[in-house]
Amino acid sequence: MAGNDLVHVVDDDVDVRKSLGFLLATADFAVRLHESATAFLSTATSNIDGCIVTDVRMPGIDGIELLRQLRARGHSVPVIVMTGHADVALAVQAMKEGAADFIEKPFDDDILIDAIRSALANRDRPAATHPQSAEIQARLSTLSEREKQVLDGLVSGLPNKTIAYDLGISPRTVEIHRANVMSKMGATSLSHLVRMALIVESKR
């Protein structure tokens, strides 16, 4: 159980902050709400507890810049990025910068809660020593050449239509390859798929 693990919610939308605050409180998290990344950083201590949930698009310091500033200050606190459907490329970039996960809006409440619990459970485990890297590499080896090309596009944050154009195939064909990639990789979501690909990439 989460117990009293602390979750910082950083979002410029007051309704979103209040909604997430209520949701997380009912899931037995301790919650602190911040109206901007600037406001959060101004109150951040040398040791930030718990986990951060932040929107990727915010005025001033956005979610990615918040992540960079935290890492520059030596904070290893897990960060989960919330993103709109059109912002997947930004979310992928955030994961390359060290985000623990990203979630596409609108999302199911349980998906966010599970992501937070997973991030908190794995916060002390270095990504470079991920125990599943060999298993992930084995799954990658089962992909066809075309499926690997589609995966590369997804990990680059490209939408299906762009991947289709680049490969000279239809968007529907990309959707089929994408479904096959998700199945072969055992990925439960796009963020899970990207996370696995980045783990293997970090080992190269």
From TrEMBL:
Which residues belong to any copy of the HTH luxR-type domain? 136-201
Q: Which organism is it from?
A: Mesorhizobium helmanticense
Residues forming the Response regulatory domain are: 6-120
Report the PANTHER family cross-referenced here: DNA-BINDING TRANSCRIPTIONAL ACTIVATOR DEVR_DOSR
Tell me yes or no: is Transcription among this UniProt entry's keywords: yes
Q: What is the lineage of its organism?
A: Bacteria, Pseudomonadati, Pseudomonadota, Alphaproteobacteria, Hyphomicrobiales
Instruction: Offer an example of a GO molecular function term for this protein.
Output: DNA binding
Q: Which GO terms describe its biological process?
A: phosphorelay signal transduction system; regulation of DNA-templated transcription
**Could you tell me which residues carry 4-aspartylphosphate?**
D55
Entry protein name: DNA-binding response regulator
InterPro entries the record matches: CheY-like_superfamily, Sig_transdc_resp-reg_C-effctor, Sig_transdc_resp-reg_receiver, Tscrpt_reg_LuxR_C, WH-like_DNA-bd_sf
Record key words, sorted = DNA-binding, Phosphoprotein, Transcription, Transcription regulation, Two-component regulatory system
Per its UniProt record, what CDD domains does this chain match? LuxR_C_like (cd06170), REC_FixJ (cd17537)
